[in-house]
Amino acid sequence: MSLRIALTKGRLEDQTLTMLEQAGYGTQNVRNKGRALVLPDTKKDIDYILVKSNDCITYVEHGVADLGVVGKDTLMENEGKDYFEMLDLQMGKCCFIVASLPQANLFAKKGQIRIGTKYPHVARSYFLSKNMDVEIIKIDGSVELSPLIGLVDGIVDIMETGSTLKANGLVVLDVCAQISARVIVNKASWKLKKEEIIAVLADLKKAVDERA
Amino acid sequence: MELRTPLGNSDRLAKEVRKRKELCDRIQHVFDQFGFEEVQTPALEYYQTYNQAFATLQDRKMIKLFDENQDIVTMRMDMTVPIARLAATSLKNAQVPLRLSYLSDVWKVRKAFTGRKSQTLDCGVELIGSKDDAQILVCALEALEASGLNNYKIELSDARLLQVPAMKCFEQAADIARLADLIDRKSMVELSEFLDQFDLDESNRQYFLNLPLLDGGLEVFKQAKELAQDEETIQTLQDLEALGRFLQELGYGDYIQFDLGKLPHLNYYTGIIFEAFVPGVSGSVLSGGRYDNLMASFGRPLPAIGFAFKIDPLVELLDTLKDRKILVIRYPAACAKEAYIMAKQKRQEEPVALLLDDHQTKIVVEREVRP
């Protein structure tokens, strides 16, 4: 039975394709996709779809994609977890951090604090685990701006290099979680196409181990 | 004015309703043949009833209302709890084993924009007062066959395979819940990180780490028994293996498999648990298991086992229905009596609809196809 794999566009796209190529998969159609949306592998019986990270989970949960490659950040932010998370690809590494202006004194403040973030669920569960009462404000772009102009006391965001934070005078107060790209599998597909899925996971695991 | 159905709900049109009936008839026929009797319970149950049934109730998934005494009432979220309540009260004096079946809508709160339905139809059976697992599995396998599916698998496990070793190795209920969640989601990366936080024997660590990967045919039991650390778990594995072999001898070998890392999503399960999968449906189309403590929490201690089909995803797979033809009799008012008599006669053979049509001067009969 053929497989359909959902790949996440953007930050992880190129690294995922490179890893698939290293594992012996034919990704030319994805590299030169033009306007096509369903992209067949040139070597194996696999179709790729290239989607936004949240959609990757949706397509896998509904079983229209058997596997998905998606960042742990997106998996953590999504509350429903109706899939198997089977492999860490050890790439696209970054982390969730709490940051603020140095004078904000975030963890010592009395009363409720305000946190700006693109990841309200991640932020909420982090501060719940710290027994802190926070008001979360959802920000869609350039979260670093929100404490600078006084909307919030601090932020929860993804940090890759830390250069944007530093350039704006923000300091990292804590690391909430480490993030990397993961392979997720639809539960029913795992039961019904197990051999094919295990073959893909084994190929990718081998590529991960070769890099380590 | 805004006319719409509430979140996660939709109307069911004629063709879908016919497909549902057809599918449910096929399944219920098997239940009848196995000696089950259909019962119905109210759509509403007291919240307290559910709270009594579950150690940790997922109460955010329940639709709740208040009655006139300000007691919390819920739309029933499953059928096992209402049937168990019924068995403990209305059928308190009935002789066991009770063989009860149902075809009922259940309700859960669904998140917006996820494509999931709030109201779904469950069709299932409960065998109360019996320790026999095999006959229920045979009933499930026969009902799957009768439903017209050509490629399905029932996957078996046992709730005790995690519960018993976890209780021995972990003290905190929260840690056991976290462990169960990671194994259930086959979240291999985090499972390994989680186990590293505890001072476990390497042999125990290996058991938990391998549990999610112990799936396949009867061959999984060899490795599982090597990994198991206590007598009780080895016994559970032997019993499950014996059940698997028995079903194989009966000729169901191609339709069963095992996933020992499967965990009960409802925490009243105490023994064997199982789910069925078919291509084209994400998630299971049938699920069930043994719940030997639930009846006791309702004051009538009895072992019990049951399962339910999820009808909604299966209906979409049922393409075999023929289009329905209806005989339409158009008649002018003057010919009403003649038309009604003709309709009564024709109804012996086929469905007939009457249509008053004063543009006609006499009765006109035509066949309409309803796809």
Descriptive notes:
The complex is a heterodimer of chains A (212) and B (371). With 212 residues, chain A is α/β, with parallel strands linked by helices. Chain A folds into two domains: 3-92 and 180-211, Periplasmic binding protein-like II (D-Maltodextrin-Binding Protein, domain 2, 3-Layer(aba) Sandwich), CATH 3.40.190.10; 94-178, 3-Layer(aba) Sandwich (D-Maltodextrin-Binding Protein, domain 2), CATH 3.40.190. Chain A has helices at 13-22, 28-31, 53-61, 72-77, 120-129, 145-148, 163-167, 187-192, 194-211; strands spanning 3-8, 38-40, 46-51, 67-71, 84-88, 94-100, 113-117, 134-138, 154-159, 171-179, 181-185. Chain A has a six-stranded mixed β-sheet, sandwiched between helices. In chain A, strands 8-7-9-6-10 form a five-stranded mixed β-sheet, covered by helices on one side. In chain B, strands 1-5-6-12-11-10-7-9-8 form a nine-stranded mixed β-sheet, with helices on both faces. Chain B has helices at residues 14-33, 47-53, 80-88, 134-146, 160-169, 173-184, 188-196, 202-210, 220-227, 231-252, 294-297, 311-315, 336-346, and strands spanning 37-38, 44-46, 64-66, 72-75, 98-107, 119-128, 153-158, 215-216, 256-259, 272-277, 286-290, 304-310, 324-331, 352-356, 364-370. Chain B has two domains: 14-315, BirA Bifunctional Protein, domain 2 (2-Layer Sandwich), CATH 3.30.930.10; 324-370. In chain B, strand 3 and strand 4 (72-75) form a beta hairpin. With 371 residues, chain B is an alpha+beta fold. Chain B is built from 13 helices and 15 strands. Chain B starts with 13 loop residues before the first helix and ends with a strand. Chain A binds chain B through residues 1, 58, 61-64, 79-88, 182, 185-192, 194, and chain B through 111, 114-115, 151, 153, 155, 185-190, 215-216, 257, 259, 277-284.
